[in-house]
């Protein structure tokens, strides 16, 4: 009886740990995405173009 109860507690702890990991990852992704959306929204368009242009060349994609 005692081992069954402790196994259940370990299982519940694993589920709680996994759930908190998923929530933390989702929160980080939302904050990271919001940072990029607002950062791109307030950036100068020529700066965005130059950054995209340099990134394409860094990955060896021709752009013109």
Write up what this structure looks like.
By secondary structure, the chain is mostly helical. The protein has one domain. 86% of the residues lie in helices and 0% in strands. It has helices spanning 2-42, 45-58. The radius of gyration is 23 Å and the shape is elongated. The N and C termini lie far apart (72 Å).
What about the largest sheet? none
SS class: mainly alpha
Alpha plus pi helix count: 2
Radius of gyration: 23 Å
Task: Summarize the helix and strand pattern as letters.
Answer: HH
Relative helix content: over 70%
Which quaternary structure do these chains form?
Answer: single chain
Report the uncertain regions.
none
Give the mean pLDDT: 80
Strand content: under 5%
User: What is the number of E strands?
Assistant: 0
State the distance separating the first and last CA atoms: 72 Å
Number of separate structural domains = 1
Which key terms come to mind for this protein?
2 helices, 64 residues, mainly alpha, 86% helix
In a few lines, what is going on in this structure?
The chain is mainly α and about 60 residues long.
Write the topology of this structure.
Blueprint lengths: L1 H41 L2 H14 L6
């Amino acid at each position: 009886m005692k081992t069954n109860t402790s196994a259940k507690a370990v299982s519940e702890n694993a589920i709680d740990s996994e759930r908190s990991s998923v929530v933390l990852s989702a929160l980080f992704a939302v904050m990271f995405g919001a940072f990029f959306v607002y950062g791109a929204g307030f950036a100068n368009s020529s700066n965005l173009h130059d950054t995209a242009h340099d990134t394409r060349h860094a990955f060896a994609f021709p752009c013109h």
